[in-house]
Write a structure and sequence with these properties.
The chain is α/β, with parallel strands linked by helices. The protein folds into two domains: about 200 residues, Rossmann fold (3-Layer(aba) Sandwich), CATH 3.40.50; about 100 residues, Rossmann fold, CATH 3.40.50. The protein contains eleven helices and ten strands.
Amino acid sequence: MSNQNNSVIDLIGNTPCVKIQRIAPDHVSMYVKLESANPGGSVKDRLAMNIIEQAEKDGSLKPGQTVVEATSGNTGIGLAMVCAAKGYPLVIVMAESFSIERRKLMRFLGAKVVLTPKEGKALGMIEKVRELVEQNGWFWAQQFENKANADIHEATTGAEIVRDFRETGLDYWVTGYGTGGTVAGVSRVLKREMPNTKIILSEPTNAGLIASGVKQERNADGTPSVTHPAWSPHLIQGWTPDFIADVLQEAVDKDYADVLVPADDQSSIQWSRRLAKEEGIFTGISGGASFAAAIETATSAPAGSTILAMLPDTGERYLSSMLFDGIDEWMSDEETAIAQSTPSGQFPTA
């Protein structure tokens, strides 16, 4: 069978599910879905592709028109890849607080990256985009409000999960949320085709927006008008902006989540590190958070249960973050001792 593809966009989706061999509790089977296998390295490649292609179909995106979006990084990287492949200029607005690797990756893919002060949070990014759209007539991707976001997860991510677990069964599916596209789209499929699967939704311990039960205030176009009162800063980049996105509201209104599990910053970092060191699976802090929620779910799961956790991205876009604290550039004492144990390749001593 030929493995030739017309575009890098053709490689988006059909990501693998991998069984956890060493760090899963003995009484359950745990799997992770590796969204880092998408060509742009994250789950957001899916929505980037669908938002652009749906806008092309309905005529809201004109040939050569500049695309603009507010993002913490992964959607921006996905859009930069898709726009590069299709020939659209792209401007990304991102708060200064997100990792440096993200802005470098987007610029490497040809995007312009406009930074906003961290004090403005995600809401400040959106306001900047709104001004740029009004001034320049650019196409606003609107990942937080765009129906194409959840739709692509219904058509692809959810369908893939059903395909991979229809025979063996799936007792729990675990995910976090940013825009809410993954949980809304996949939940549609699971509720319809695998109704016995419990949907576990996780959010940061100190940003329990859904747990609070407080309704999000919105503008007429669905964009948030204020920061949600339950939000406070957290380290899980890509998860839980300072508002409940309009795309996520479907999952809230229809009670898709069977259980809501909080994930704290340090556990998220620790599980990301353990996945790397003990399973060879390289994921970011958000992946660690999803896996932390899956481990929490496993503690009360009946013996023989099957659990699938979403790992949204790769760890390489966290090199400058706390995830890599303690990972030195130079040799440790133990590594130096190994280096000095044989005569070649020695560095001169002071």
